[in-house]
């Protein structure tokens, strides 16, 4: 059973998250940040992960703590759910077109965190409701650290800021789906010449 349940309680947020890597692509639970919830729906849908997220945060200040801590918790859950990574492909990469936007997301569940973003500057894109556009970078960075994975995001080109964000979260889903999939040709092996990840 490739599942994990993580709780995180701080003075700024309270998060309960359940992750099932072998799900049907459903996001459930309560998230008070509509745009963030919309983006996570895309990631769940295309990863085929079932994700139950109940998020409470100090959004009366802003959404930073809530988005950052969700990245932490989801990363921890992903790391726990893949376990010793026996039999998985480990790598995933997907290039996704969305109208005028083209984005590639590539992951390696290596045990070594690293995050690179290249492309249209998200920091200058303003707000989506109560969600500040730069929070997508914060989420992805914390996800990479706590999942202990390489995460590379390249927005090759794009103009519509919604399309840019949505393409990132969709491509992330596809890439994670590939990376955690079981490789039937080496289902009992760790995907590393070291023998450990």
Reading the helices and strands in chain order gives: EEEHEHEEEEEHEH
Which term fits the overall shape?
globular
Helical segment count: 4
Indicate the structural class. Answer: alpha+beta
SSE layout and pairing:
Layout: E1 3-9, E2 13-20, E3 27-30, H1 34-47, E4 50-57, H2 64-82, E5 91-98, E6 101-108, E7 114-118, E8 127-128, E9 131-132, H3 135-147, E10 150-157, H4 161-180
Parallel strand pairs: 3-4, 7-10
Antiparallel strand pairs: 1-2, 2-4, 5-6, 6-10, 8-9
Helix pairs in contact: 1-4, 2-3
Description:
The chain has one domain: Ribosomal Protein S5, domain 2 (2-Layer Sandwich), CATH 3.30.230.40. It contains 4 helices and 10 strands, in the order βββαβαβββββαβα. With 197 residues, it is α+β, with helices and mostly antiparallel strands. Helices cover 34% and strands 30% of the residues. The strands form 3 sheets. It has a 4-stranded mixed β-sheet with strand order 1-2-4-3. Strands 5-6-10-7 form a 4-stranded mixed β-sheet. Strands 8-9 form a two-stranded antiparallel ribbon. Helix 2 (64-82) runs parallel beside helix 3 (135-147).
Offer a quick outline of the entry.
34% of the residues lie in helices and 30% in strands.
Characteristics:
Ribosomal Protein S5, domain 2, alpha+beta, single chain, globular, 197 residues, 4-stranded mixed beta sheet
């Amino acid at each position: 059973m490739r599942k994990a349940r993580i709780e995180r309680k701080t003075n700024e947020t309270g998060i309960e998250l359940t992750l099932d890597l072998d799900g049907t692509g459903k996001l459930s639970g309560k998230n008070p940040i509509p745009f963030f919830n919309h983006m996570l729906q895309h990631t769940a849908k295309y990863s085929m992960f079932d994700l139950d997220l109940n998020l409470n945060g100090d959004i009366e200040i802003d959404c930073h703590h809530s988005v950052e801590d969700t990245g932490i918790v989801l990363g921890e859950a992903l790391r726990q759910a893949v376990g010793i990574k026996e039999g998985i492909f480990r790598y995933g990469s997907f290039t996704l077109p969305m109208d005028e936007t083209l984005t590639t997301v590539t992951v390696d569940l290596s045990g070594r965190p690293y995050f690179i973003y290249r492309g249209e500057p998200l920091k200058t894109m303003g707000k989506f409701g109560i969600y500040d556009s730069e929070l997508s970078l914060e989420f992805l960075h914390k996800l990479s650290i706590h999942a202990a994975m390489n995460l590379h995001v390249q927005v090759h080109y794009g103009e519509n800021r919604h399309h840019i964000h949505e393409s990132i979260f969709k491509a992330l889903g596809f890439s994670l789906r590939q990376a955690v999939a079981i490789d039937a040709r080496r289902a009992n092996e760790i995907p590393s010449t070291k023998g450990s990840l």
